[in-house]
Amino acid sequence: MEKLIIFDCDGVLIDSEIIANRVFAETLTSMGYPISTDDSIRRFTGLNEADCRQLVFDDSGIDLPEDYWTMLRPTLWSAYEKDLTSLMQPVLEELSALNVPRCIASNSAKHYILDCLHLSKQAQYFPEHTIFSAKQVDKPKPSPELFLFAAKQMGFAPEDCIVIEDSAIGARAAVAAGMSLLLFKGASHARSDWYHEKLKPFGSPILTSCHEVAEAIAALLQSTPC
Asked: Chain-centre distance of CA 85, in angstroms?
């Protein structure tokens, strides 16, 4: 039986979290909420825009504009154009060659995902109908809604899906959805010991390179009964 591979975007397909958190930390600090890039990663990785905004408000009383991420986009995009790299190119090439079904399920907005795929030269692996955003469901990750929605739209049962995630928030969503989970900590933001400790409780394989991801996917595909 076929399996569907569901990729998160930031920190899985693209090495973006370190860049985005650097820009976000600099902006928050300038607004009176001093925070380092590392602390920003600890607090905000995996959260959607609304939850980040609420967390900042709860901590400091600073009310970020509802469209704050749109306001940051020119600065962020300038940094992306300089520093953004892909993380899964060899994996995507192999899955494409084998015609393995795949999609993206991300808390980020769809236009952002599409732009990042083009910038990182990975758009050819994901037709637009295979890209799913949390804005398409009522609740973002860590709710399982987005993963379940993506699986349904792609024609797969949850038990026939393999999720690649980098964050504890995404991992909680995949587990709640009843899907197989592979955890990836090969991005720049995820290499600290404290980050590893956040992923350990899920008991899923923690992979440090795209080659390990490819091997883990192959093992899961080969273990599937025909």
From this structure: 14
